[in-house]
TrEMBL record:
Residues 25-62 form the COI1 F-box domain. This is F-BOX PROTEIN MAX2. It holds the Pfam family F-box_5. It comes from the Eukaryota. SUPFAM superfamilies: F-box domain, RNI-like. CDD domains: F-box_AtTIR1-like (cd22159).
Length: 290
């Protein structure tokens, strides 16, 4: 035992006297260290250190937000294979649909899947239902989706905006519509048409900043009845009893009955939402709720 202890001390002393560089750390350990860094600016700075760091940073990045116009397929970055959280809401400026700028929308949608095969969280600007018709089949295992649309929706069938998403993504756990302009009567029929998807939802954010119209009492009850496993539910509504469909004590009790697992209920009167858009730093919450 004494000889072994002396041998260990000798090896440690030799290591201390040698010139050990940070690059001597195995790549597997470096990758684990890099994966713990989430700040985008820090990761961008790390990628400029050397070619090795650049490759490791690209292979361990899990969040990416694309900007600009991707109508040219060769401009798609192909080095972010580990990205699980993809933001496409800023790809096409001035409200143009993301796929309409390409002469072959199906090919572009497939290229996005080939480039980012591991996506489970998606944020996308969905100007019209055709966007999700092409994108949703590319990532059928999506768990979290946030839809963005500041423009008024076209006159289509109620719930048509969500049908492609619900048809292809059966594992959906979180749906964020806080920045998606739609009518309050759009969501209930879509959820009722796909009961398995509605039952898989645990987080639903319809705290809509783009419209002053709040969800009526019967609409909230229809949504929660279709989604019995909700744990977090955020919504705009009408509290003023002078208006039809206002939310009162009976509605609140029914919401609790429909969703027994609910741990967060955040309801905001629509009149308090019309003055300003939501603060992107408040995690979807706003003042004036209950």
């Amino acid at each position: 035992m004494a000889a072994d202890h002396e041998q260990v001390e000798e090896i440690m002393a030799r290591s201390c006297n040698s010139n050990v560089h940070f690059h001597d750390i195995p790549d597997a350990i470096l990758s684990s260290i890099f994966s713990l860094i989430t700040d985008t600016r820090s990761r961008n700075a790390m990628s400029l250190v050397c070619l090795k760091w650049h490759l490791i940073e690209r292979s361990t990045r899990t969040f990416l937000s694309l900007r600009g116009n991707i109508r040219d397929l060769f401009l798609l970055p192909t080095c972010f294979r580990a990205v699980t959280n993809l933001d496409l809401s800023l790809v096409s400026p001035w409200g143009s649909p993301i796929l309409d700028s390409s002469p072959n929308t199906a090919l572009l949608a497939q290229a996005l899947h080939w480039t980012f095969p591991s996506v489970v969280t998606l944020t996308v600007y969905a100007r019209n239902p055709s966007i999700l018709k092409f994108l949703a089949p590319q990532w059928p295992h999506l768990r979290q989706v946030k839809l963005v649309r500041w423009h008024q929706r076209s006159s289509t069938t109620l719930g048509f905006d969500f049908l492609a998403l619900f048809e292809h993504c059966h594992s959906l756990a979180s749906l964020d519509l806080s920045h998606f302009y739609n009518w309050t009567e759009d969501l209930p029929p879509a959820l009722e048409a796909y009961p398995s998807v509605a039952a898989s939802l645990s987080h639903l954010n319809i705290l809509n900043y783009t419209s002053a119209q709040g969800f009526k009492s019967h609409e909230l009850l229809a949504i929660t009845s279709a989604c019995p496993n909700l744990r977090e539910f955020l919504a705009t509504c009408i509290f003023d009893h002078r208006y039809f469909g206002s939310v009162g004590d009976e509605t609140l009790l029914s919401l609790a009955t429909n969703c027994p697992r609910l741990s967060l209920l955040h309801l905001v009167d629509s009149s308090s939402m019309s003055a300003a858009r939501g603060n992107p730093d408040n995690d979807g919450y706003t003042d004036g709720g209950c």
